[in-house]
């Protein structure tokens, strides 16, 4: 983003994410890696039960990198994006999720209670801009959040990794989310590092009270630490489940097989596949 | 677009539309793509489905065979019905076609498997 400034300032998303920009999501390994890392962290904050296949909405699903992370965790997903070029890349990638061309600011066109969770990577800040003369950012945010609340099942979470331009954007976004009925708040990872700092808006759609997870790399020792509740989820997994444990050799083999079926290039399986690497410093 | 998505998709974001469900389907090209069978997911999603809308949609695109009029109270153990439902929900895909709002007649094109739900300025609520 350095010299060219923020993408949101250059053009509306459906124009910014043109063919050239969309192509980067299959060719630029650094961008791919960043999207994957953010998706994995967002998944962790979603805290879905690990032994259940859930139905998830991915907002600003783009080329489907975040969706693939959902597929790898055995979830079924629907993605929405405003850029046809990004969605063409997702089709090209033969993602397992179903994708819809839509503007989140128009509202969520789904039946009440459809989804068990929502994930959104690097998309929400786009709603803070008025890209058309009739756009009113606060109103579009409200339309978005209030309809989103409706399509979630009670107690479900929505996790947005986003890049706010300034604190007044954060305020506008959280205000509209709360007005729409959500609880929750901001989770900031590595708040003291300009480079590694990442922001997640973590929202809860009703249900029992939920503790906001703690950011990574914060100095405060969390009392009711989020880490604890997430590992509690993991421990709930019964032995002898059909699904292999995440990141185990078997899990990686299955994931590679899925990619192979899609005709993608995948490293060959060896005895080293899925082995722990020695820490080298 | 898969029929599972059709089963949750509405046009109620259009100003003045109250339910916008089920959207009428016109399909001019259909594909069946292999998707891993996941019985856990099928059993979990069943209670959320609008069964009659699913039957109707499946029939409209020529895959209505094998779907009972009423959904049995439990599918636990009924492997063949689970697989039929899996096929209809996740494998059958409308690649080219059109959806239509049942209240306003507004059409939403489906191209390359992607339904276009973008609204015009005067339709936004
Ligand atoms: C950084 S990309 C995210 C990429 C995506 N997570 C992936 O895996 O490829 C942000 C995406 O948000 C989408 N977006 C921006 N504004 C949007 C809006 N109003 N409605 C829907 N999608 C939007 C853009 O089109 C773009 O694809």
From TrEMBL, chain A:
Pfam families: Methyltransf_11, WBS_methylT. Residues 220-229 have a biased composition (Polar residues). This is 18S rRNA (guanine-N(7))-methyltransferase. It is found in: Cytoplasm; Nucleus. Residues 215-281 are annotated as: Disordered. CDD domains: AdoMet_MTases. Residues 203-279 form the 18S rRNA (guanine(1575)-N(7))-methyltransferase Bud23 C-terminal domain. Residues 57-136 form the Methyltransferase type domain. The lineage of its organism: Eukaryota, Metazoa, Spiralia, Lophotrochozoa, Mollusca. Heterodimer with TRMT112; this heterodimerization is necessary for the metabolic stability and activity of the catalytic subunit BUD23. Interacts with GRIP1. It comes from the Eukaryota. S-adenosyl-L-methionine-dependent methyltransferase that specifically methylates the N(7) position of a guanine in 18S rRNA. Requires the methyltransferase adapter protein TRM112 for full rRNA methyltransferase activity. Involved in the pre-rRNA processing steps leading to small-subunit rRNA production independently of its RNA-modifying catalytic activity. Important for biogenesis end export of the 40S ribosomal subunit independent on its methyltransferase activity. Locus-specific steroid receptor coactivator. Belongs to the class I-like SAM-binding methyltransferase superfamily. BUD23/WBSCR22 family. The keyword Methyltransferase applies. The keyword rRNA-binding does not apply. One of its GO terms (biological process) is rRNA (guanine-N7)-methylation. GO terms for molecular function: rRNA (guanine) methyltransferase activity. It catalyses: a guanosine in 18S rRNA + S-adenosyl-L-methionine = an N(7)-methylguanosine in 18S rRNA + S-adenosyl-L-homocysteine. One of its GO terms (cellular component) is cytoplasm.
UniProtKB/TrEMBL annotation, chain B:
InterPro entries: Trm112, Trm112-like. It is found in: Cytoplasm, Perinuclear region; Nucleus, Nucleoplasm. GO terms for molecular function: protein heterodimerization activity. GO terms for cellular component: nucleoplasm; perinuclear region of cytoplasm. Keywords: Cytoplasm, Nucleus. GO terms for biological process: rRNA (guanine-N7)-methylation; tRNA methylation. Its main location: cytoplasm. Belongs to the TRM112 family. This is Multifunctional methyltransferase subunit TRM112-like protein. It comes from Pomacea canaliculata (Golden apple snail). The lineage of its organism: Eukaryota, Metazoa, Spiralia, Lophotrochozoa, Mollusca.
């Amino acid at each position: 983003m350095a010299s060219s400034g923020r993408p949101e300032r250059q053009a509306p998303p459906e124009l910014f994410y043109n063919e050239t920009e969309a192509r980067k999501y299959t060719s630029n390994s650094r961008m791919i890696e960043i999207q994957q890392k953010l998706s994995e962290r967002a998944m962790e904050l979603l805290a879905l039960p690990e032994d259940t296949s859930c139905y998830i909405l991915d907002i600003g699903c783009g080329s489907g990198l975040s969706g693939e992370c959902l597929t790898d965790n055995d979830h079924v997903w629907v993605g929405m994006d405003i850029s046809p070029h990004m969605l063409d890349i997702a089709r090209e990638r033969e993602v397992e999720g179903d994708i819809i061309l839509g503007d989140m600011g128009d509202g969520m066109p789904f039946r009440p209670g459809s989804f068990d969770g929502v994930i959104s990577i690097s998309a929400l800040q786009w709603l803070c801009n008025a890209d058309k003369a009739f756009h009113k950012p606060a109103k579009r945010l409200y339309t978005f959040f209030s309809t989103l609340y409706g399509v979630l099942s009670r107690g479900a979470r929505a996790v947005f990794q986003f890049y706010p331009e300034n604190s007044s954007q954060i305020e506008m976004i959280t205000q509209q989310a709360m007005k729409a009925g959500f609880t929750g708040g901001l989770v900031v990872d590595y708040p003291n590092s300009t480079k590694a700092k990442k922001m997640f808006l973590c929202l809860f759609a009703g249900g029992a009270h939920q503790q906001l997870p703690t950011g990574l790399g914060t100095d405060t020792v969390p009392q009711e630490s989020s880490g604890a509740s997430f590992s509690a989820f993991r421990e709930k997994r019964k032995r002898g489940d059909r699904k292999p444990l995440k990141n185990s050799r078997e899990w990686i083999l299955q994931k590679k097989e899925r990619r192979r079926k899609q005709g993608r290039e995948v490293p060959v399986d060896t005895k080293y596949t899925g082995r722990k690497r020695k820490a080298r410093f | 677009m898969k029929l599972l998505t059709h089963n949750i998709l509405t046009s109620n974001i259009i100003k003045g539309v109250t339910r916008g469900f089920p959207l009428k389907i016109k399909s001019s090209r259909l594909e069946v793509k292999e998707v891993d069978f996941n019985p856990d997911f099928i059993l979990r999603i069943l209670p959320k489905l609008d069964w009659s809308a699913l039957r109707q949609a499946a029939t409209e695109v020529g895959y209505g065979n094998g779907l009972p009029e009423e959904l049995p109270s439990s599918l636990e153990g009924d492997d063949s019905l689970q697989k039929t439902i899996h096929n209809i929900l996740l494998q059958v895909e409308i690649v080219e076609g059109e959806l239509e709002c049942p209240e306003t007649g507004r059409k939403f094109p489906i191209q390359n498997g992607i339904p276009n739900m973008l609204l015009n300025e005067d339709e936004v609520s």
